[in-house]
Amino acid sequence: MGDAVLLNVVLYLPLLGIALIVAMPEGQDDRVRRISFGVMLAQFVITALLYLRFDPSIAGLQAETNLPWIADWGVYYRIGLDGYNVLLVLLTAFLGPLVVAGAFSAIQKDVKLFYAMVFFIQFAMLGTFVAQDLLLFYIFWETMLIPMFLIIGIWGGERRIYATVKFVLYTAFGSILMLAALIYLVWSQYQDSGNLSFAFTDLFGTRLTVREQGWLLAAFALSFAIKVPMVPLHTWLPDAHVEAPTTGSVILAGVLLKMGTYGFIKLGFPLFPQASQLAMPIVMALAVISIVYGACLALVQTDIKKIIAYSSISHLGYVMLGLASLDLLGIQGAIIQMVSHGLTAAGLFLMVGMIYERCHTRELADYGGLAKALPVYSVFFMILTLAAIGLPTTSGFTGEFLVLLGAFNAAWPLHLAGESAPLVFAVIAVSGVVLGAMYMLWFAQRFLYGSTRVPHGPVADLNRREKLILAVLLVPVFWIGLFPDGPMRKTEGAALHFQRLVAGPPLQATAATPPALVARPRAEATR
Amino acid sequence: MNWTMLLVAMSPEHLLLAGIVVLIAIDIVSDRPLGHLPVALVAVGAATLVAALLAIAGYAAAPFPGQLSVDSSAFAAKAIVLVLAIPALLLARDEFPDGPFYALLLSSLYGACLILSADSFLTLFLGLELMSIPVYVLVLLGMKRPECTEAALKYLILGGTATAMLLMGVSLLFGFTGSLSLDAFGQLLDAGSPMAQSAVVLILLAFFLKAAIVPFHTWAPDAYEAAAVPVTGFMSAVIKAGVLLAAVRLFGFNSLSGRLVELLAGLALVSIVWGNLAAIRQTSFRRMIAYSSIAHAGYLFYAFLGDGEGRFQAVAFYALVYGLMNMLAFASLPATGDDVERDRLENLKGLYQRAPFAAVMIAIAMFSLAGIPPLPGFVAKFLIFRNVIEAGYTTYAVLGLLGSYLGIYFYLRVLLYMFMSPAPAGLQPQSTARLALGATVICLVPAVVLMVYPGGLLHRL
Fold it and tell me: What residues of chain A, 162 to 201, have a C-beta less than 8 Å from chain B?
């Protein structure tokens, strides 16, 4: 019971933060900043405690709260931690204080409203991760639109209005159809079992025809794929990222994009297993297209924020590839890759924000030779770049490597059975790694080396606050890179659960069984 | 006749009537415009309270058998309609210092209460007229520009048309069934003869006109724009809730079938789409709200596709949330000397800088009207579409949801103006008047309660 209370405290601390900020008198911006940071830090500490106490050997929910909310409709306030969300909750809580600290000097306008909105989105994101009831999940999912709309729209760049409206309309379109699908799903489940419930666990076994599953999966997938974002639904992302203030970009890249992949792993695929199996080749193809196309677009950008924005599309393609492989290693790799991307992309966006505060331009061509002018900055930037590429010992390596391993693992037996498409996809995905190294290193080379060009320079190197933020951010990057065992153990149960739910009902016997057979021994071998 | 029953069963109406009498008496006795607002507030507040208590107690009676009966859902409906009138009263003092406004508003409320317990078309007709006629005057009462007369006349003529259609429908119904009771309408729904169908359609048309469903909506934008802010709020929240809840009573527990479904869903869908699209182009706040209310009438009529039991719950909850949010927006609208200026959307630019509280309140109202969670408008919309899907009309539900998607942009535009645009030159920082603040709180507190725990109210409806 104690854990359940703690989880509720974690979830509602941001609301307390909003209340504290609103209660503050006007004109005390510094105190607002300090209070925000304190609340976020407290939230992280409690979340870390919950993470440590999370026991991967227990199947099902931990720290569970289950109270009737709209009892007549079977809607419950049901939240809890499981292998799916525990890492992402930790990631969200970890980024919270860094996001707040990162905005100390950048945000000078409407400070109170700004931090209130940061808290609001933190609340919505955590709620989305911990919700275990479909309506509750949907409510938190949609709630994120409101603070993000304001964050981009008020504190964003020049074309912020366009970007924020595009962001809201894009994401809302997906969710509207998801709403219809979720009502239909619950209603079907009710017809089937006579038990009106929105709980995930009750909905997993819903009997639907493959045709129905296909439609419902399409509706859910549209919503999730827009958030991921998967090519061709990605066009909102560069605009939102470029126009958003640094904080907005960090939240977007760090956590918000993971909502889409989390939706797929937690709901989209497991709810509609047969349709998912049929759709896997399409998902895989889109994932590979996202990897390669995102990387190619990143290669030709001249705006440094856009490079990182497009690299996000590419990196999240790996997550989708890992999930689509239905191989245990691939699935675990996907989860690790989500966290890893959250850390590295957040770090890179923070660093872009730091240089933008100093030099007021994001044009790559304006910069050069920062390694001489800003040595500390350059060291941190280089480390994050290498982590994003997936250099061994960093988290990026663990994620990408496991995903690719999983993809090949699943593809090889299929290839032997005469179906080579997954193998081709896996091979193309590997080329994405090369492309990734290419655009990031080329970017770093033009940015950090060559003749020194510092717009509005000379400028000061990183101050203590910034150094501390980046140093703290690098801790988990190396921790996951060097000791992936811990986080992987926490998520293994969820990965197996996902695999069982999606690959379980045999539609095509060849597709369902071999990955499970192959995956198991190798998963043991990696330890 | 059982006098106690008559006294208890119609107590909300009696309280309103007492209020009207006192208001008129004040006008006769004194020429100082002082006591009107408190008297009206006490009357409406007491009526709301009594209706809510009787609804919770589950009181049911038929003081005039066959003409008028009450039960807990009728009281709940009355409580909803009455509570929405309170913010309108609070907003009115600056614009309407004198007596007629309050007496008219109360008699309109009396009519709304009457239709919510009507059992026969006679009572329904009486109530509808009693509700509508004062509003024609109210639109004209706060006249600030010449177009108001035109708008009021338009409203009067179209309202009269609605009355005529209702009467024609009812006479056909009487000819077909020999009865004037609302139950007879239920029998007509399944009857195949052209006369029965004409009766149903004519009666429905009257409700479409009153609720401003496309293509019978043209009076609404003009009337909403012409009326003073409290009257616009009253029309968009109270009258709409009254008409829709009366329609629920009219249809009873009958499920719709066949062509009627197509008619209802088709017109509702057109209203949703057209209302949302036309709202995008508006430059006046009240016109925008008028088109938004046309779209919302569409959602409300969608609820009739669902099965009979869930209909009242869906419509009542939706009407309450929608009304509260509309009132919240009107209550927070900053007051400027000139009515036309106050109404211009452009003047909301930079409102957050000038009046942060008002801007946040309007933002809450807009997000809720757009149906974005976690605000209560989402649960209301969810409830309606859930009922539609459960009744098997998945396609209509998807189309309706897509239609509601069209509505997101114009609500966002208000936010773009308030939060993301610089203020136009020459506008001073404003503080909200105390009474308007009271109205805001009266709208906000129930809305927050409904947001945090909708299950509590839904369980009772």
Answer: 164-165, 168-169, 172-173, 176-177, 179-180, 183-184, 187
